[in-house]
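Is this the right way to post structure tokens for a design question? Let me know if I should format differently. Anyway, here goes:
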């Protein structure tokens, strides 16, 4: 069992205030922007010299999130024309790159006309298409080749993006051909390589070894270029995971940065390393608050039916985990006197797959209580099928002016439940 989940006092105040304004039972997201900015600054401060932090906006591309992180990070990583529009509307302009498989020619064209720093090339066919677009615009476009390298099996994670058959990147065996194709393209210039091999990495030491394997190959990759002096960037992607089951035990980001700095300092000609972090930047700032509509026992199992569900917060179903729950009873004294038993928390959907969390031990949960699901700031609402059953979309509340989070300004809810 893990530690009880901590929710800042001012987040609880924002939830209570919004609930008073709701005429229907509540389902809403709350984003702690001061905490997000502080977390981003801490991550940036831990980086060694010569290493950059970009935000992969696919994790959460809401305008308020972008406006909060843009002044903190070095740039943004985008993967579609729609994300280009959002990034270019940001209140603080930042450098940005375009990556991902299946880019449209119109995406490439728009990226170049709107000042993209570099494009990450995913295939030999994309090299040819990108050259044609750059030639039509009479520009010379910097590119990075995305590599799908061979990797030891013991460096695997829950979600592999490389080291196996995937739609992502160019097999390392084809790298010579790909580098030659870029070198032969009059309107493209090779400036680096991109490797994003693993997602959901929760072990710092394993990720440290993964990055070391890239850096060991770096001199050989760079030497393939016709002009190796122009090849200076190594984008190592993201993939830093969030421990949803034990929130107090998270990835050791400072430890990874320290080890990376030592490795780079020992290299003769180290690359300019860039991280593209999504989940690990924004997950911790978000909370999904849902109101209990019904409780029932079915074949001996207790169910708590709540407003909302997985069509608004798809993360638990997508990740295949039972999300941590914070119970906010309307009557704390009554709840403390009632039986503590196991409940499965579900939403309103007409499918048995609409499960947010199983086997949560809650005391006296009742209709009208609130349940809060923390760690909801990344890949939660934005990956959800929100139009299913034509339910109204949840409100998204951005907490902008809270006092700085600290141990003295946050509390453990009396009925916060330990995480399984």
């Amino acid at each position: 069992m893990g530690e009880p989940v901590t929710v800042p006092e001012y987040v609880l105040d924002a939830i209570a205030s919004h609930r008073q304004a709701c005429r229907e039972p509540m389902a809403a997201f709350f984003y702690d922007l001061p905490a997000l900015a502080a977390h981003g600054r801490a991550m940036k401060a831990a980086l060694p010299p010569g290493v950059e932090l970009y935000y992969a906006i696919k994790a959460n591309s809401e305008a308020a999130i972008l406006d909060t992180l843009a002044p903190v990070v070095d740039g943004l990583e985008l993967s579609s024309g729609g994300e280009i529009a959002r990034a270019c509307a940001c209140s603080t302009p930042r450098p940005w790159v375009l990556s991902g498989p299946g880019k449209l020619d119109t995406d490439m064209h728009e990226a170049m006309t709107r000042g993209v720093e570099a494009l990450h090339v995913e295939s030999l066919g994309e090299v040819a298409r990108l050259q044609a677009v750059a030639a039509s615009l009479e520009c010379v476009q910097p590119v990075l080749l995305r590599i799908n390298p061979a990797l030891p099996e013991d460096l695997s994670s829950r979600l592999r993006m490389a080291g196996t058959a995937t739609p992502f990147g160019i097999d390392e065996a084809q790298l010579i051909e790909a580098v030659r194709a870029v070198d032969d393209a009059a309107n493209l210039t090779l400036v680096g390589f991109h490797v994003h091999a693993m997602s959901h990495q929760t072990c710092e030491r394993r990720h440290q070894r993964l990055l070391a394997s890239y850096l060991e190959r770096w001199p050989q990759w760079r030497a393939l270029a016709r002009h190796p002096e122009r090849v200076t960037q190594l984008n190592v992607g993201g993939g830093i995971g969030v421990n949803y089951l034990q929130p107090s035990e998270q990835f050791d980001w400072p430890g990874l940065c320290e080890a990376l700095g030592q490795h780079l300092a020992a290299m003769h000609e180290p690359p300019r390393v860039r991280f593209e972090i999504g989940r690990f930047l924004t997950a911790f700032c978000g909370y999904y608050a849902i109101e209990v509509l019904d409780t029932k026992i079915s074949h001996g199992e207790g169910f708590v039916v709540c407003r909302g569900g997985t069509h608004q917060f798809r993360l638990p179903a997508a990740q295949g985990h039972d999300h941590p729950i914070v119970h906010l009873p309307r009557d704390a004294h009554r709840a403390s006197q009632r039986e503590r038993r196991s409940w499965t928390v579900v939403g309103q959907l007409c499918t048995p797959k609409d499960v947010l969390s199983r086997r949560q031990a809650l005391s006296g949960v009742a209709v009208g209580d609130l349940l809060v699901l923390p760690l909801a700031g990344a890949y939660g609402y934005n990956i959800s099928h929100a139009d299913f059953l034509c339910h109204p979309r949840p409100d998204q509340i951005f907490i902008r002016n809270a006092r700085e989070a600290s141990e003295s300004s946050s509390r453990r809810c009396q009925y916060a439940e330990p995480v399984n």
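Format looks fine. Someone answered above. Worth noting: The chain is about 30% helix and 25% strand. The first strand starts at residue 6 and ends at 8.
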